[in-house]
Structures are given as structure tokens and as C-alpha cells.
Amino acid sequence: MAKVNTAPIKWAQRSDSLYITIALQDVKEESIDLSDSELKFKGKSNDKEYEVNIEFFKSVDAKDSTYKVLPRSVQMCVMKNKPEGDDETEEFWPRLLKDKALEKNQVKIDWDRYVDEDEEEEAGGFDMSALEGGMGMGGMPGMGGMGGMPG
């Protein structure tokens, strides 16, 4: 069996969403499974197998999240779940993953998209133009390997 490598992840956030980049070039045979609590990714880049298996710090809204496979990476915009009955619906997370030790080894901050919590208003939301026409994630189980780009 071929060795499976852990794909490098970069992330940034706004109060209502996460921007996750799986930093692999020319991903083929990708399988992306996003649930409200975790992200599972498998794919090939330069004939090597990669995967990501992470559990989010808090729950997310899988059905309103999107992703797109681009030549240099896989980009995802993952919407945070709004806590029920909570007026303070949006907040910054202290980290991406539930497991702090895994975060140190697997995840880097995406400094190009990073803003401080108190600078969010002037920075605005993420530039989503790269994700236009991207694949929705919610309500599409079993789509693994059926990416929108020809291989």
C-alpha cells in the first residue's frame, strides 16, 4: 500500500466563516467530505496520495459551505454554525481544530487572508471570486472522486 501523506492546511477566519486551503498542486481524484464537525479529504498530487482528517474546534454549517479545486490548491469557504438562541452569533475561534496538538503539526495560519478580530470590519469578508462556480458541499453525500474538473 502506498504511503499516505498528510496534506498541508492553511486557514483564516472571519466571525461567520473559515477559509481553508489545502496547499497541494494539481489535485486529482479528490474526495471531499465535510460534515458539521469534521473535514475529510483525499486526493493525489504529483502521483502521491494525500489526506486530511480533522475535527473542527466547533461545529460548522456543511450545507452552506463551498469548495473549488484550483491548479495550486483546494480552496474552501466553510460557514460557522450559529449557536441556537445566542444573540452573539458570531465569534472568532482560538484555533481551527478541536485537538490542539494536531493543530501544531498540521495547520498553519493563512497570513494572506488573516485579520485580527478587531480589524474585521475594515478588512471585510473573504474575496470569494476564486470560489465562484465552486461545488456546494451540503446534501451531496457520496460525491467522492466526482470533482468538477477533468483529470
SSE inventory with pairings:
Elements: E1 4-6, E2 9-13, E3 17-22, E4 28-34, E5 38-45, E6 48-55, E7 60-69, E8 74-80, H1 100-106, E9 107-109, H2 120-123, E10 135-136
Parallel strand pairs: 1-6, 2-9
Antiparallel strand pairs: 2-3, 3-8, 4-5, 5-6, 7-8, 7-10
The first-to-last residue Cα distance is: 23 Å
Largest sheet: 6 strands, mixed
In the CATH scheme, what's the topology name of one domain?
Answer: Immunoglobulin-like
Low-confidence residue ranges: 139-151
Lateral arrangement of strands in the main beta sheet: 9-2-3-8-7-10
* Count of separate DSSP helical elements: 2
Helix fraction, binned, reads under 10%
CATH architecture of one domain, by name, is Sandwich
**Which structural class do you get from the secondary structure elements?**
mainly beta
CATH hierarchy, class of one domain: Mainly Beta
Average residue pLDDT: 84
- Overall number of strands: 10
- Portion of residues in beta strands equals 35-45%
Write down the secondary-structure element order. Answer: EEEEEEEEHEHE
Radius of gyration: 15 Å
Overall outline? globular
